[in-house]
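$ ./design --mode recover --in tokens.txt
reading tokens...
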């Protein structure tokens, strides 16, 4: 009987150790459907530090990696700096949905015209002007405006999803950048991004 108890105890210890080892495995980095390197940037259109990344890093990343189809880039709009941040997030999502090849232009233009983060400026009037600047059809512009202003549209749902994703991943500062699941220590320097590219 003691032998059986001893064997059962040993098996229990082995199971506990194996379970602990399985839980300690690193999460696999996100993979794109086409196997490209995945860049995920958590940001907010009102964030002045995100604007620095847009001005100083994104031109190189866009030219050398996005435009050459080497990476997939995703901007997760945290939408947490103020109430109008979420409006900007909805508009960005609508552009991504209706005219995805113009999204980066929209993102660049919003950051280029960024105002004081402590003031409400990411308004429908501002966003409509930025949408009107895009080189797309009038019908696309109307569809983008309709989507981001319509409650429970896909653009609204995606903004809510992005906000939840930000919370779930405990992102409390923006910009935060991950490349294939690895956090970029200093997102303000191109060389820190290219370490993972």
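writing sequence...
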């Amino acid at each position: 009987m003691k032998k059986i108890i001893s064997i059962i105890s040993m098996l229990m210890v082995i199971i506990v150790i194996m379970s602990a080892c399985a839980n300690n495995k690193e999460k696999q980095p996100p993979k794109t459907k086409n196997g490209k390197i995945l860049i995920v940037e958590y940001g907010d259109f009102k964030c002045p530090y995100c604007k620095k990344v847009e001005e100083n890093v994104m031109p190189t990343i866009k030219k050398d990696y996005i435009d050459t189809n080497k990476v997939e880039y995703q901007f997760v709009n945290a939408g947490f700096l103020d109430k109008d941040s979420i409006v900007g997030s909805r508009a960005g999502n609508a552009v991504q949905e209706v005219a995805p090849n113009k999204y980066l232009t929209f993102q660049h233009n919003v950051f280029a015209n960024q105002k004081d983060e402590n003031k409400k400026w990411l308004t429908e009037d501002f966003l409509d002007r930025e949408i009107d600047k895009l080189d797309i059809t009038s019908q696309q512009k109307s569809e983008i405006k309709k989507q981001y202003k319509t409650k429970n549209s896909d653009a609204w749902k995606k903004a809510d999803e992005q906000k939840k994703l930000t919370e779930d991943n405990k992102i409390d500062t923006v910009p935060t950048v991950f490349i294939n699941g690895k956090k970029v220590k200093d997102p303000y320097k191109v060389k820190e991004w290219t370490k993972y590219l």
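exit 0
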